[in-house]
Request: fold
Amino acid sequence: MTVTVLLFASYADSLGARSMHFDMPQGATVADVLGRIRALPGADHLPSEPLMAVNERYARGTRVLEAGDEVAIIPPVAGG
Amino acid sequence: MRTAIVDTPINAAALMAEVARHSNGATVLFVGTVRDLNDGRAVNGMEYTAYRSMAEREMADIAREAATRFGTTDIVVEHRIGVLELGEASVVIAVAHAHRGEAYDASRYVIEQLKQRVPIWKLEQYVDGSREWVHAGRGKGEAGRVGKGSEGRGTPDLEYQAAEEAPL
Reply:
């Protein structure tokens, strides 16, 4: 199944992309997707436990994904 | 109740008018503006970016929570994204309530939650020409290149709880 990963701000700069697509096995979790991203150049700037979201909601690493899910890695927010 | 991410200057007076109602005895208007100094560095502008759809969703959640907690639906919040100059408003929160205590509390709740949960980032532009992402100091093992920013007072580590326990 394919999942979309969104990157923002400093994470997008580090990894050189704002979105990516990954083909993941059924049952894959948010943590599994993060593991795939960690293998990419520039990923050493990610913290050990970045905030993650699935379909616009904060989610834990154990969250099981479905085809078409939109996973986001959320840098520390700085609104206001 | 209304919340929005906007690309154009925010009209604070219009937001205040939007929450006006004869049953309200108190209106609190919070205006967050771009300031000229951060972490001892001279700043001459700020570029805000957002995960727009999620940011709008989180802002709507926060307004609903404030409504439930403090007993007013007269809450309007706008956060601007894009390039802002010094002194321009990045966020405006208008809250009205029958009484001032709840109006102040609801306004404070909205801005504190917004700063903790809403996926918005700012790229600070310094007078010396350099630019840096402002990070509010969360993230275990955050890489050193990430500027801690003047907001680095240690953001409470409760994003997950806030998101998952939020009443809908």
Summary: Residues 5 and 53 of chain A are 10 Å apart (CA to CA).
